[in-house]
Amino acid sequence: MHGAWVERLGDDLLFNHQTPHLLALLLEEWKQRAPAYAFEAQRLFSRLLPLQNAERTAPILLQGDAALPAETVVLESQIRFGLDFTAGYSVGLFLDQRANRAFLRNQPVRRVLNTFAYTCSFSVVAALAGAETVSADLSQKSLDRGRLNFTLNGLDPAAHRFIADDVQELLPRMARRKEKFDTIILDPPTFSRGNKGRRFRAEDDLQSLLSAAMEVTAPGGRILLSTNCTKLRTGDLESLARFCLKNARLNGTLQQLPALVDFPDGTAASTLWIQLR
Asked: Whole domain around residue 167: which residue ranges?
């Protein structure tokens, strides 16, 4: 259904919707289809998808025991991730990135930089594959949740770096220190404000961000370029990647993973893997 879809998060369901009418239609459709699934949801949550970031709110419990803990743990390919339905608009795991997480886990990774890391799901996957990871995010609270995800999977957070800083300022500093990574995750928000109120807008600033990331990518390394900005689709990312490669006098190949069949068109992040040569 365009403008509305359901995500399964462990034993809970999250109904995403753009309008109350679409939520009502989605709930009715689930009621009709539920008997065909061998799954009984413990709780149902709804999440409004507003046009403006400032209007985002935490999911609302529609059905189920309100006394159950808001925090829970889910499994993705046997990897454990903590969720918190009261933490804000994003509960802790972006399901539309699961194919990219699976792709990363099967790559020979040694040193991974996860920018805009949020709760560090990519970092956990990389660490399980044997990599040294650096997770950077402006929110210390998100990074603390990321450390918990490491612990949930038997990983020692102390063996990895967590940096609470503005990525737009961090990348040039890393370049000056000659730091290099064989894999960089570049998945910024559509809009945000960094240190000292510095604005980031994906459609305006993604090019400069990608160029800065290329400065710290080792020869032969990879960059995952990703955005939820509706003004930028995969074709736009390909054009941007080619421009940045040419401007940096680098060669590279571009790879797009198959679309997820359980996300309606236009709802999942647009993503592109860039392999430097």
From this structure: 91-276
